[in-house]
Structure formats: C-alpha cells, structure tokens
Amino acid sequence: MTRSDLVEALAARFGQLTHRDAEFAVKAMLDAMTEALVRGHRIELRGFGSFSINRRPPRIGRNPRSGESVAIPEKRVPHFKPGKALREAVDARTQELIAQGLLKKD
User: Which pLDDT tens digit goes with each residue over 73-96?
Assistant: First the structure.
C-alpha cells in the first residue's frame, strides 16, 4: 500500500472527507510521527505497534568494488515493532487465504 492508496482508502471510507482533506490528514499524521521520532520520542499505537529509534554505532565497512575499508558513521534509524493484535490479525487472515487457496504457503 502506498501513501496515495492510503489517501484513497480514507476518502472512500469517510464520504464526508474530500480527497484533499484525506490527503491533508495523512500528511499531518505522518509529519507528526516523523517529528516525534526526530525528537527521540517513542510512538505507540495500541493494537497496531510501536515506533522507536535505534542507534547504530559507527563501524568499519568495506567498499565491495575495491575492497578498501570505509568508515561508516553512527546512525539513528526508525524501528517498528508490531503489536500483538496486528500480528494475530495478519496471521489469522493469512491462514484464511491459504485455506481458500488464494495464497500459497511459503
């Protein structure tokens, strides 16, 4: 699902929202989440999951083309941990689709 798919789904689900309002709502939510993560806050959406920041320490890597060592600086990266309800919903729906023959088992 892309951002525009999310906007379309939101506008379709709530008839009183125009496409433009749905787009604004999605943008506002994602901007607020991004800003919270930049400030180092944790985001928890009950039943869905949580977003946090993980620190990757500096390290020495290798250039695959030349084999020469390269210093890779420290990074802060977003991390998502799905909630129990989301994990269970995905698993249950996957099992249903497999039973119906609409999805192949890995």
Answer: 999 999 999 999 999 999 999 999
Q: Is 8 helix (H, G, I), strand (E, B) or coil?
A: helix
As a whole number of angstroms, the distance between CA 36 and CA 74 comes to 20
Amino acid type, 58 = P
Element (H, E) at 68: none
Length of the chain: 106
Does the domain at 42-106 match CATH 4.10.520.10? Answer given as yes
Each domain of the chain, given as residue ranges in start order, spans: 1-41, 42-106
Model pTM score? 0.79
Q: pLDDT of 50-75, one tens digit each?
A: 999 999 999 999 999 999 999 999 99
Rounded CA gap, 8 and 75, in Å?
34
